[in-house]
Amino acid sequence: MDKKANQNLREFTRIPIHVMVEIKAGETVFKTDKTQDLSMKGLFLHCDKLLPVKSQCDVSLIIGSPKNPIRIDIKGRVTRSGDSGMGIEFTEIDLDSYDYLQNLIMYNSHTGIDAVEEEIHSHLGLKKRV
Q1: Strand 85-93 and strand 127-128: pairing?
Q2: 26 Rama sector, left if φ>0, alpha if ψ -120 to 50, beta otherwise
């Protein structure tokens, strides 16, 4: 399947953005700025520390200046983990963080604001409308 056809199967637009990410899972805490893809549904990041698949974790996207950063706090679950990094699916997000994430994706998307707004409208938060 080619990349364009694969993109059409995705629920949300992915953006190739590099942001600082802090991951917490139990006693394990680490940061990386080696994100590959970010969407309303999750992210993929390159990192040395890997969590097992199905691990629950807290994800914080840290944006802006170090003196006054914006934190987008999200609960997630590791969906894949391998030599190149790991994929995390977002499972829970508060309203303020949801708005920040939505704007981050909307204004950094190559598909356009209207396409991202339509994707978001077809979902109830992180879940697809039925």
Answers
A1: unpaired
A2: left
Give the integer Cα–Cα distance in Å for 69 and 91: 23
Nearest to 42 by CA among 4, 70, 14, 69: 14
Of 28, 96, 99, 35, the C-alpha closest to 58 is: 28
pLDDT digits (tens, 9 = 90+) for 63-114: 988 899 999 999 999 999 988 899 999 999 998 998 899 888 877 766 655 6
Q: How many CA atoms lie within 13 A of 56 on its CB side?
A: 4
The domains of the chain are located at: 18-128
- Considering the four listed CATH numbers 2.40.10.220, 2.40.440.10, 3.30.1300.10, 1.20.1260.10, the one that applies to the domain covering 18-128 is 2.40.10.220
